[in-house]
Amino acid sequence: MSKKRIIVVGNGMVGHNFLATMAESEHASEFELITFSEEPRLAYDRVQLSKYFSGATADDLALTTEAEYDDSGITYLKNEKVVSIDADSKTITTSSGRIEGYDKLILATGSYPFVPPIPGKDQEHCLVYRTIEDLEDITASAKVSKTGVVVGGGLLGLEAANALKAAGLETHVVEFAPRLMAVQLDEGGGKLLRRKIEALGVSVHTEKNTTEIVAGEECRYRMNFADGSFLETDMILFSAGIRPQDELAREFGIDIGPRGGIVVNDYCQTSAEDIYAIGECALWGGMIYGLVAPGYQMAKVVANHITDTLVKLETPALSFEGADMSTKLKLLGVDVASIGDAHARTAGAQSFVFSDDIEEVYKRLIVSADGKKLLGAVLVGDTEAYGTLLQLMLNDMDIPGNPASLILPAMGDEEPVGLGVSALPDTAQICSCFDVSKGDIAAAVQGGCCTMGDVKDATKAATGCGGCAALTKQVMDAELESLGVEVNNDICEHFAYTRVELADIIRVKGYSTFKEVVEGHGKGHGCEICKPTIGSILASFNNEYVLKDDLMPLQDTNDIFLGNMQKDGTYSVVPRVPGGEITPDKLIAIGEVAKEFDLYTKITGGQRIDLFGAQLHELPKIWEKLIAAGLETGHAYGKSLRTVKSCVGSTWCRYGVLDSVSMAIALENRYKGLRSPHKIKFAVSGCTRECAEAQSKDIGVIATETGWSLYVCGNGGMRPRHADLFATELDDDTLIKYIDRVLMFYVRTADKLQRTSVWMENLEGGLDYLKEVVIDDKLGVCDELENDMTRVVSTYQCEWKTTVESPEKLKRFSHFINAAEEDNNLLYVRERGQRRPATELERIELVELNEKR
Amino acid sequence: MTDWTNVCALSDLVPDTGVCALVEGKQVAVFRYGDGETIYAISNYDPFGKANVLSRGIVGSIGERPVVASPLYKQHFDLSNGECLEDDNVSVEYFPVRVENGVVQITSAVTA
Ligand code: SRM
Ligand SMILES: Cc1cc2nc3c(=O)[nH]c(=O)nc-3n(C[C@H](O)[C@H](O)[C@H](O)COP(=O)(O)OP(=O)(O)OC[C@H]3O[C@@H](n4cnc5c(N)ncnc54)[C@H](O)[C@@H]3O)c2cc1C
Ligand code: SF4
Ligand code: FES
User: Fold this and answer.
1) I want to staple B76 with a disulfide (CB 3.0 to 4.6 A). Which of A221, A567, A715, B67 is the partner?
2) What ipTM was assigned to the predicted interfaces of this complex?
């Protein structure tokens, strides 16, 4: 059988999802997949589009890469619009005149922003918000504007307003309806949202009907409204709704709905044979679904329909049955959620309202006439109940107890009313982005997944908008428990606690030795897992000399002799070179030491110098000399601050905007010696060219015209992760304050040997939560965190200096306690002018040679 | 009669750490287990990492067995008999130890 040709018009989120489903299917080899994209790039994450304004690049947003398509055998043409369809000959024609035949044609053309027909709407700074190119235009326009207006106070409009505000514009929202988010919210919810948004400095104008856009006096434009009022602005962003992109279908005889949209049936088939429509261009049951999850559902239905009818020759198993439009989001920092019948349109519906003007929380619950079932809800200011409420509604479950308790805040010791995940049916959809059910997650756990990471990899749950992460974890834990797998987070057989719990215990009890901890809370003699972990926690909080008699036994391989052990048992020596800046004299001192002790010398990836091959008894002598030359330990051996890499910055570089070297040195000197769950690396770049690669570091700092930008939780290494933009426009003091808090919070709450990147990925609430803790002091711990850090900073000591000054400690730095001899097992050969350990083979030859002599 | 070699003073050994001693030409890792007079001695040579480093590992317990974890690749060796806990086929030599008048003494008398 020759391959069936499937053409997908439009490579947006849904089109791509369809292609990915087909390419991953077991019948992939039966099909030839071709897609045309009108845009200059392959599919990207439109849902996260606004992240572009907080530093995400087109690459970050990409849902796929050309290489991935190449590998899956998907043919793609970018910048190539499909301009006609001939359903009789089953061909399409593109803007460049290309003609292609198809067996099945999928229209996934999405939608376009609706711009009301207002005279003056086509001027230069009147823009829309849909594609990456739109965002580039908005950014350019914002640079030459002071004031911006968003037309439309719906979901997208508020997101756009957020972007304008972030760009530093005086921001207004103009809405035709009497309230914000009229589709999703009721009056009470809309009112509170408005109040909160106005408190953030965004002006909201409701019931305004723009009649024309003319030249302004103070600003570039003036918008005149039907009620006679007006507003001056430099730019206008239209976000007044979307319209299905149905042009092609319309022109070539495919049925269109009365108000637009390509009419489809339950299999997403259009009126023309072998042509399907999916995503935002499709009209099903008189509805256009402006969300991505229903689109993915349609993609799945079509993929199934094609394989079942063409390959398996069976009746298709899946059909589209409509989708839930509930949403939960954060708009301008305000939590908002809308579930089901938010407007209480169901006959006999009753509602419960909880409104707290002081805490600024509004919740409304819409229940059935008999009060038993949940029909809908509106939540503003506190959306914690979203997951529970959504599941109650979707699964048509009985409301447990009194409905009011679902939205009332918990009083005193009362347990908040939750919905045990065990009550959910297996079919309950947990992740709507990827249509993952409770049963899917349970199956993954039964198949061996036991961490969130495993479950995400196996099911994709929680990898889209992330809104379902908490619920996914609950389902996973419940399943693990029911399988009798104790969800065991004990660090080892000696302590039935996690690192975080141990850190809390140690901090609260004020312990200073392992003995106290193991006697109070553990058993046995400890091991190479709990000892270094506790050693690190003790060091983070107390910052005592790590070779003190009762701390020394806790130190792992490297810390115990303050050097990195190499494969032959010798050590490397790495002096600190803050910010990578070094004087010629210090450089010479390092060179002299290396020469005297015949140490293999190499520049590290962290802008400093590593000297290898030092024997135990040589270490103190080497350090004595280095210290005399003004150098100190670089903690290359510790789970602690490694290096703060820097570029040359504004002092020399023609592009530098701030002095990155001084900042790097200040940071390195501040945090050196801080013991932490894993090593920490920083970098500071003098401008956005980012020569110091700060975005790959645990803490990255980049200079901008308006101050420092702080990035957190990046990682190079085995699994690279770009750092997240945490805050911008910081002065020196605020930058350091935030770093103090982030690091101490990490020290307190990370798991053992967990880099900041993994910590962030496991942090419930993620980046937003971290911001709330560090910037808004949500937990009220910032003072404590800063005090902890101040203590560490003020008790810093160079461990090598303390060691070389202590005869008692130096006793241990000899190979034998009872003899002056050296280790006789060391063998070296010379290569490129330096020595290196002999290989196994060389060893045999060298030993034979010696014996012959 | 057994030949005992004086290795060091008990007070030279920091509780729960090890040192390396030279006993009749052999490299011996000597550990003080806890803060009393319990001393163990096994070979200093790590058969996995092929280096003389066991005395520099972390001391602890696995179940009831006193162990040291190799500082290179973390295999555990039973301090009382040299057995490797991860690999039944591997063990290292162990040595009788005693403390006489505050002095740690070891003999390399064959034990295997
Ligand atoms: C010396 C150096 C390589 C070099 O010759 O350039 C090096 C050498 C080692 N690295 Fe590294 N890393 C060195 C820069 C890096 C970098 C680049 C950087 O820092 O800019 C990275 C990636 C960046 C990052 O960490 O995000 C790096 C990622 C790792 C990793 C993987 C960490 C991860 O999160 O995936 C390990 C393994 C680990 O820590 O568990 C590691 C572990 C090691 C260890 C400690 C392995 C070990 O236990 O023996 C090596 C011993 C060094 C020694 O004996 O002195 N090294 N290592 C670099 C020392 C930098 C310094 O001045 O301190
Ligand atoms: C700023 C923003 C925020 C959003 N936030 C959310 C959210 O939080 N949650 C949510 O569920 N949804 C959200 N959405 C909506 C979501 O992005 C859409 O539902 C989704 O992108 C629809 O996918 P689609 O493939 O149908 O359309 P699109 O992603 O628009 O893709 C259609 C593609 O087809 C191309 N095309 C059109 N005609 C042709 C032609 N003739 N030839 C070739 N190519 C053509 C278009 O250029 C486009 O690239 C948001 C949208 C925006 C703009
Ligand atoms: S990051 Fe900027 S300042 Fe630093 S060296 Fe590069 S271009 Fe120059
Ligand atoms: S619901 Fe969006 S990731 Fe699961």
Assistant:
1) B67
2) 0.71
